[in-house]
Write a structure and sequence with these properties.
There is one protein chain. It is elongated and about 60 Å long. By secondary structure, it is mainly alpha-helical. The longest helix is centred in the last third of the chain and has 27 residues.
């Protein structure tokens, strides 16, 4: 027998997650409480508690929603590039750069980085983000190794560190937006350095 979820339940959950993520972005993690989320989402506080019985679980939901996984590489782009790994790497890292340029993602990332030293759940979320970046780059890195553009010992995790690190520095420490020229330069430097 198929169990159906009430669409109102899904809508209210989505509204609560959006409210929690917006509060996090606007005012930081401390602003995310059951009461503030209920008020912002237009639901009762008991409804918020029913979904997230603890403040920690509510805040983790806000963090998780604020940094969704990168979407799969569109096949049409892969075909259009002729399978060129450089083009795919630039595309994937441009998606990451666009996300990091977003105010919400920046606030969420800052919270994850700050909280991961003290909170096991946030530490796991940080590790998940690192793994997602490496996984998004894996097909292009594998192809670059096959074509001799990268050394055979270069992993997607190593390439992610060589590219996401400089992009992170440029965006969050230097305070600059990440344009296509920056992403291309970082990819080309990594391809050259790891070849």
């Amino acid at each position: 027998m198929e169990v159906r979820t009430d669409p109102r339940l899904l809508r209210s959950r989505e509204a609560m997650v959006a409210a929690a993520t917006a509060l996090l972005t606007e005012s930081g993690m401390e602003a995310v409480t059951h009461q503030t989320v209920a008020t912002r989402a237009g639901v009762g506080r008991a409804t918020v508690y029913r979904h997230w019985p603890t403040l920690h679980s509510l805040r983790m939901a806000a963090l998780d929603a604020g940094m969704p996984p990168l979407p799969p590489m569109p096949e049409r782009l892969r075909v259009a590039s002729g399978g060129d790994p450089r083009a795919e790497l630039i595309h994937r890292l441009s998606e990451l750069a666009e996300r990091w340029d977003d105010e919400q993602a920046g606030a969420v990332l800052a919270t994850i980085l700050g909280g991961s030293r003290h909170d096991e759940g946030i530490r796991r979320l940080r590790e998940s983000l690192v793994d997602q970046i490496a996984e998004a780059l894996r097909p292009a890195v594998t192809e670059a190794v096959k074509r001799g553009r990268l050394r055979s010992d270069v992993t997607s995790a190593a390439f992610a560190r060589a590219t996401a690190g400089p992009l992170f520095f440029e965006r969050f420490l230097a305070g600059n937006r990440l344009g296509s020229d920056t992403v291309s330069a970082v990819v080309d430097a990594a391809l050259k350095g790891l070849s």
